[in-house]
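A further point concerns the way the authors explain their paired sequence and structure data. Since the whole study asks how a given chain folds, the encoding of that fold should be made plain. A single example would do more here than another paragraph of explanation. An entry of this sort, consisting of the sequence and the corresponding backbone structure tokens, reads as follows:

_____
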Amino acid sequence: MSKGIYVATIEPNSGKSVVVLGLMRMLLGKTAKVGYFRPIIDDLEVGEMDNHIRTVLSHFEIDIEYKNTYAFTRNEVLDLYNKGKSGEVIDEIIKKYKYLEERFDIVLLEGTDFSHDNSSIELDLNILISKNLGLPVIIVTQGDRKCFKEIVEGVQLAHDTFKQDVDVLSIMTNKVNPDDVDKLKELLSARITDGTDITVIPKIVSLASPTVKEITDLLDGTVLFGKDMLNNLTENFSVGAMQLRNYLIHLKENSLVITPGDRADIILGALQANISKNYPKISGIILTGGLIPEEPILKLIEGLSSIVPIISVKGGTYFVTNYIGKIRSKIYAENTEKIATSIATFEKHVDTDKLSERLITFESLSFTPRMFQYNLLQRALKNKKHIVLPEGYDERVLRAAARLISAQVVELTLIGEKETIAERIETLDIPLNIEDVNIVSPKESPYFEDYANTLYELRKHKDVNLQMAKDMMEDVSYFGTMMIYKGHADGMVSGAIHTTQHTLRPALQFIKTKPGVNIVSSIFFMCLEDRVSVFGDCAINPNPNAEELAEIAISSAQTTVNFGIEPKVAMLSYSSGASGKGADVEKVREATQIVKRLAPDIKIEGPIQYDAAVDMRIGKSKLPDSEVAGRASVLIFPDLNTGNNTYKAVQRETGALAIGPVLQGLNKPVNDLSRGCTADDIYSTVIITAIQAQEL
């Protein structure tokens, strides 16, 4: 079952609250612990509470602190976007949602309201949020005062826009003329044919009508009488400016009377009409101009047996009347009648059993880079490890170190002279407190002699004498690797300025490979726009034979599992299936069979071409019975030339973040960097190294 569901719209006044309230009741009928989250709320005055949140928490008695029910206000999001920090918006939303996900069986998320003129980024944001959280979406549209063609085209646009990136469970079109419900559902079902559930909800007058309380609040009015009847619905309104005998004929059921505060005749006449069997009921009276009836009139009103709300407002009659005409009804916590009507409307017109079943059986195939990186950070935080960075003078390393220390995700050691590193931090204006990291210079370390003696003992059979061992231990890669060997650090990340050979040589000499592992190999986590793929081996082994290729595939699958991705392994070649001939394709075919024999639980396909591995349409046409074709998450390249060029091409052409190379097979984690790496690459690789260290 999905851990969450996202309710979104594409327009204002869609009636989204009806769907949210109905869904909340439905979910509470299926499970005891239901959470609620609004990623982005409208801007509020200090001390104010979002009305949607207050209504849901209050009515359903949801136990969540208000600060945990939303991530940003609208202006906060716009400010971050204008500063080029849009990624921070998604990261914070993921963080807040995951907190609720851990506490509740399912979380109901409500998207933005489109209540402002400048809502150009709202649609993209709602899609981006649901996509990064891997949640199915219910889209709410509205059909009020629209023709069939306009409604159908609007629904089609909403469906197609969301469907490109997320799973759409249902489209609910609200506020439809009751006489048009069946016909509209028929038209929509004929247009949307991919299995998306279509629901049409008629317009309910009582839900569309504002209460006297809403009008009073928006006009900043003062309640003179009838506080206990502020929830009266206002279905009509009219201005009492003519003589009473002429005005009475204009009264309608549940109408609001608008009149200057000195028109005692209209006020008293309207009140008398309200209790008369010969005239319709009124919802309330708005007194304009800031005028209050004189004392004898107030005393007369007080003595009446039934008094509707009488509200005094400061604006003139013309302004107040126009303003009231623009008010759109909202549902708030105190109006239990509207809440009950909303839930009853939802249950009457929505097939809740069918919707519940679809939600229970929903399985998201989406795993975005943002979610992947969030999961990595959370895993690393659970068991903090000590990582050594030998290239302590490099600007990228220092900037990554500042982020890592700020996030408190690892303990760090930088190798280098403390004074020099301090000067670099100050010169480059890097927000890193020198006292928050361990800094060590190999020759000045109290462990230097011990490290050199240990290296001598380990390598003397290779004709390494003690002086040679001391010379080697002055090298930052040897010193950092020995820290790991001796248990003074848990892992190492290097390669920003050193070659792969320079980084790996010490690890291969005395860290060595795990039992049963014959070769060290590598993978890249390729963070594409909508998924994370694993590429191997793109950094270490130039031309592996079939046995080595099989071992790379098995190691890559195991690493993939360790990082929360289901491995579906594609053994890449220039042909798919049984059609290809030649030594290169035969090597891949043999390697695939070895994997099937040694690790039968791994889902694997090979040989297979890249397009057939990642594109569902092509995969099904070439290998229709394959569990992997079209949905591969692990792509194993036949040689280093192919793998290295492909990962770099994908990275440059798509803008994908390539995390790695992540090394596999060593007894303790040592990871190499590309010399073209960024501070972000180093940050991610350190976190991955820390997680690898947790597995030991």
Summary: The radius of gyration is 34 Å.
